[in-house]
Specification:
The chain is of the alpha/beta class. The protein contains eight helices and eleven strands.
Amino acid sequence: MPRFHCPAPLATGAEIDLPPGAARHVQVLRLQPGDGITLFHGGQDADSPGGEFDATVLRMGRSDVRVQVGAHHAIEREAPRAVHLLAGITANERMDWLVEKATELGVASITPLLAERSVLKLKGERADKKLAHWQAVAVAACEQCGRNRVPPVHPARSLADWLAAQSAGAVEDGATTAIATRLLLSLRPGTQPLHAAAPGSGPVLFLSGPEGGLSNVEEDLALQHGFAPATLGARVLRAETAPLAALAALTLG
């Protein structure tokens, strides 16, 4: 059954108009009145209904779709371990791919990192548009993979700014990341294998760089703030592959 993200209030028996994105998708699929779909709110906060709802298409307008919300199913498909990615922004469509696959693998949140070696430089309106685009990529991945909680993609910032906000208690996911095991993907001597560096099932904050990796200054700054250097093995992975490999190992292993 087709699944659609619907951040509007959902309650069994209610009749609602789908948000524009979901309505366009329903029309593209050429669904008709009487057809069944699945809706999920996608929120991460305690007020979100969670799970997913059956729904039935009532009316197909030229640009709107009205549905009746049916039974609620308290189904969650979240990873058993919360892994937050602080990932250097990669070039071209590679960051889209990272966001999409990380969402499928169960990432808890993504913070795009404006690293010194990032090719893509974002600020102002361009940064806002990219953030909205990446969040939409995460939503589409949830619709496809069955997740009912959409992981937030936070505004892009430098590592120094992120650490300063963390210290001030103003960073997103602060309560979780404050107690998370902090890991830095590094080629420095003394690194530990991933599972040795993050035993157990507690939350993890995984920091990795863009193409070319983090600079020595950025790595030094991370180490000063409690990040432990970790390795994924002898092979050097691409910037968009490495955080996904770590995520898979931590959430699927």
